[in-house]
Protein 1
Amino acid sequence: MTTSQKTALITGANKGIGMETARRLAALGTTVLIGARSAERGEAAAEELRGEGADVRFVLLDVTDEISVRTAAQHIDATFGRLDILVNNAGIAAGPQAPSEVSAATVRQVYETNVFGVIAVTHAMLPLLRRSAAARIVNMSSELGSLAHMADPGSPWSAYTSILLPYCSSKSALNAITVLYANELRGEGILVNAVSPGYCATDLNRHSGIRTAEEGAAVAVDLATVGEDGPTGAFLTEDGPIPW
Ligand SMILES: NC(=O)c1ccc[n+]([C@@H]2O[C@H](COP(=O)([O-])OP(=O)(O)OC[C@H]3O[C@@H](n4cnc5c(N)ncnc54)[C@H](OP(=O)(O)O)[C@@H]3O)[C@@H](O)[C@H]2O)c1
């Protein structure tokens, strides 16, 4: 690896939008670390991408397990000494259920991955990102996390937001976290953004989405590779900013 070679870690990259983000970043010449909570699924994904000529390695990483997160950071430190790109992609949903039917336990479970997992991984990887000349953090959010959409009864997303309290509110929290990290890290040249990939057909929604995972990955790759004059603390689709 040359010192100019960039290294990216993508959480939940063994399938779906995370794996397509890995494929696209690798095609740009980035060394990509496939974070996955299953060694079998992670190795299989890395093997598939290596078969396409990509420089891709598997890293065992369950974002809800502090020891797993710490061990992954130690491994990346020992192998690469720094990290240039972090894509917090791993995510889960629960439901459908009316908001009044949802238990705190269900919300807590979703937040463990979608919110606390992002904080744990970002906290562990920041020392490595700070060693990069131009670090980028991309948080995989969703338009379903937009408070503006949730507050609009005529929103085209209301059919989803009205039955997905754990998921939607977890992505609102993720958006807030994104802005707060961006504010702190702006002065260090670390750009932090939340992206929405659009409604993509993946296991998350039993393949009901209308876009491909590859199309969804495009905005994450754009922000992962954006120049120093790019946005930070923004909430973006590939067509531009989304209302918070
Ligand atoms: N699909 C959409 O329409 C859509 C729209 C907006 C936003 N998003 C967001 O995009 C991201 C990727 O979703 P997707 O649609 O590609 O879904 P997916 O195909 O279900 O992929 C989710 C990935 O997250 C991983 N994951 C779940 N919990 C994890 C944990 N504790 N530790 C590590 N990895 C974990 C899964 O691993 P396993 O294989 O082990 O389960 C899988 O690799 C999510 O954050 C999602 O909220 C998706």
Protein 2
Amino acid sequence: MTDAREMGQRLAELHRTLTPAEQANLKLILGLSAGRLVPDKDPGSEEGRRAVSEALETLCPYDVVDPRGIQYRGRPEFLTDDLLEALVSESEQVGEKAVPFDEHYLGMGGTVADRIATSEELARLVASVVPKAEATGIASYLFYRDAGQGIIPHIDTDIFSLNVLMMLNHEIPPGLAQPSALYMHFADGSEQRLQLEPGEVVIFLAGTQAHSRTPIQQDERVTILTFGFMPEGAPLENYRR
Ligand SMILES: [Fe+2]
């Protein structure tokens, strides 16, 4: 009988024999499977979740010590109070025209966000934790506004294979004991809860590491800014919407 580790390697080997289009499809299937399997606590899913996790980790396009978990969490030096304020105010403007997208509202970047997306400072921060990642120049504001909005566990496709996520604003209604949070889900069935403060940035390999956001409650609001990065030299068209 094939164990999970061997199965993961075999899936990764299969990937190497495929055309780029087939590779994209296999990656999508692995990502969808991992989104369902990795957070599943059922012991019967264990072999499957270890296999898909192993395959995705082997196929990770970034050369990091450990593609699992978060690669960075903190308030970057370049994010001054004034800059954070400018981003929050830009997000409010963009938010007026944001369109419903899956379980949140999506707004394109703005002047301030776009400038950061291609800045030296952000590139340096990313390079310090994930070598050979290149900015796509794409910044997106995400808004969770309606009770129940959140994101179920998933793995992202190539355009968000490396996610730089900046918390801009989290309104928490009084008395809410367990506010919405970002979660990382691991193949051993464990998870990590990340409740971010405004100004905090996390960097993680969203194309490899399963993650989710728990649903917001009535009167709770979350505004996030994300920046896309891609492996150096990758064709940019794969990394645009
Ligand atoms: Fe994601």
